[in-house]
Amino acid sequence: MPIPTILVVQGAEYQAVCRGIRKVGATPQVIPLPIGQAPVQIFLESQLQQGLIADRSQMLVMGLCGSLRSDYSIGDQVVYQQVLSLSRTGLSTELNIDRCDPQLTALLQQRLNLKLVKAWSSDRFIHSVQTKQHLGQAYDADVVDMEGAAVFTALAEIGAAVTMLRVVSDGCDDELPNLSGAISPSGRLMPQALLRAMLRQPIGSLRLMRGIWIGLKVLENVTARLFAELFSQKYLQK
């Protein structure tokens, strides 16, 4: 199996990926991640310390993302070429560029004919149209997520081969509710805080829920399609 391990955010995204895998009887390891950069890094470092992730592992990160450009709409499937992020040391700020494994990325492109993108990995939930457009223009980024950079940081020491496949669940012109206060320090959604945030912006909340619903269905289907392709290739080579 060319991709033995999948990393995907816990909850609905994890469940969508698992449903897609079950459709084709695939057997990769699926590891649920918390939400956000700091929780992901802490979680993966713990996994490494316990010996639950082997050196030079091949990893596929899956899930949802937001669009930073009008070229990418809800339901679009993208594969990452680069992940951009900022790191702060004292008063200085540095732009980091992490590159996905070229062989695994090419495999996804060949099998699924996906769009190659540059992703911005944020340390907070990006909800405003103004911020989305600024990030897209300032860093020439196409989509945004909250976990990508942390995966690279945590797995760098073991030489893991990492690629990332995500589905767009909100457009660059979609104003969303601010969910930053609904995510706990451990990277879990807090139901009561989530409800309060969504009630404050009902129109944006409906927009968010619709985009997530579409994105999850596409995520389930692209997972099934990918592993059906990989299985067929595996048996053809026997």
Topology:
Layout: E1 5-9, H1 12-24, E2 29-33, H2 37-49, E3 58-67, E4 77-89, E5 92-99, H3 102-112, E6 115-121, H4 129-139, E7 143-145, H5 148-155, E8 161-170, H6 191-200, H7 202-236
Parallel strand pairs: 1-2, 1-3, 3-8, 4-6, 6-7
Antiparallel strand pairs: 3-7, 4-5, 4-8
Helix pairs in contact: 1-7, 2-5
Short overview:
By secondary structure, the chain is α/β, with parallel strands linked by helices.
Supply the key terms.
single chain, 238 residues, alpha/beta, Rossmann fold, 5-stranded mixed beta barrel, 7 helices, 8 strands, 26% strand, globular
How would you describe what is shown here?
With 238 residues, the protein is α/β, with parallel strands linked by helices. The protein has one domain: Rossmann fold (3-Layer(aba) Sandwich), CATH 3.40.50.1580. Helix content is 42%, strand content 26%. It has seven helices and eight strands. The mean pLDDT is 93.
Distance between the termini: 12 Å
- State the domain count: 1
What is the average per-residue confidence, as pLDDT, rounded to a whole number?
A: 93
Q: How is the largest sheet built, in terms of strand order? A: 3-7-6-4-8
